[in-house]
Amino acid sequence: MALFGSSKKSRIGVDIGTASIKIVELEKDSNRFKLVNYGIFELEPGDQAITSPGREGSQKIFQLSDQDVVTGIKQVLTDAGIKSRDAIASIPSFPTFTTTITLPFLSEEELAKTVPYEARKYVPIPLTDVQLDWSVVGVHKDAPQPNVSVFIVAVPKTEVSRYQTIMRQAGLNLRALELENFALIRALIGNDLSPMAIINIGGRSTSILIVENGFQQLSRDYEVGGFEITNSIARALGITMKRAEEMKRSRGMNTDEANVIREAMSSLVDMMALEATKTIYNYEDAHKIKIARILLVGGLANMPHFIEYFAEKLGREIVPGNTLARVVLDPALDAKREELNSTFAVSLGLAMREI
């Protein structure tokens, strides 16, 4: 019991994306999460890009510079009046290596010796240069040959050091780094163990995540996001990016009129839907299961008529992910519920990690 001051424990979740920095401050009181504060710092169109090698070739990924990240974090903390300095930060998928492998049913001690040896087959750089972590995501004792599924994640030590430096320069106490997908799972599904897909549409990319038994089983990232859609509208109408963004948010996939905006977006949205369909179908086919739930998060989830259009293209029901199911909001923030629910999904999951 605390003798002085409040006994409430608070943490901040810092979601460092390729197009924005989103921060939330959560507090836990009587086993409930309470949203204390939140803020966002957004990348301006046209800022720098990096090239990230992947299995499907090089990807051009727009990214805030490290100094921009430090400046952005400080600005959000100040403008929003966020008090806590104990932070859990996200690390994106593109600089990391993840895979799920199958091993014979082994004791925990035997797994600890076997996993690093097996990881060498999948991690394309020396294990001495990465921080390796793993977890058992499936136990199959009744199989003809009992086995376990093990999820492996390897993060280059240079990336870990980079994030530690950014957090330190921003005046934060970095308590943990976590893959953004893990934070999404924590925020969205709670104790639900059924197979489901999470589609997270970010500013510069879209990730499709398959979750089963509460663990990530598969993740695919595609270089199409909200920025490309805004850019398509701007080109089609000959307007500025700022004006195109405003029109995207206000009109969306509206079908009530001859909608030039809808036409400008449809080819990119159709591409997102096609990739999601392939990813989900291939997993269902390989594992002989049915993905019954598809959750959508990201800024586009709030765009008028987007969910209906996307669901029609997938031929499946899609629902907005509810990241606020276990979070108490101040009544004054009720009008912001939809924006917070979809846009701050990762940062909410990060802040939930240690409270």
UniProtKB/TrEMBL annotation:
It comes from the Bacteria. It holds the Pfam family PilM_2. InterPro entries: ATPase_NBD, FtsA/MreB, PilM. NCBIfam families: pilM. This is SHS2 domain-containing protein. It comes from Candidatus Yanofskybacteria bacterium RIFCSPLOWO2_01_FULL_49_25.
